[in-house]
Amino acid sequence: MVRPISNLYCLEYFVGVLRNLKNRLLSVPRQLPPSPGAPKGNQNALKHGRYSAAWINERRQMAELVREVREVREIAAAVG
Description:
Elements: H1 7-27, H2 53-79
């Protein structure tokens, strides 16, 4: 015997089908057209201050101080 299908069941089924279709359509990644030309922005831009003039000068002074300390330590070792 064939079971009768109620209108509410058909409506719920149809809503479920539409919901699945919507989710499937929205989950498809959209492909953007390739952009013409080079990318915008400077990829080689200064992103930190490691190479700024102030830091270069500070590293030079630190290296000079280290050299002087080594010279004093060698002189003290030779005398002592």
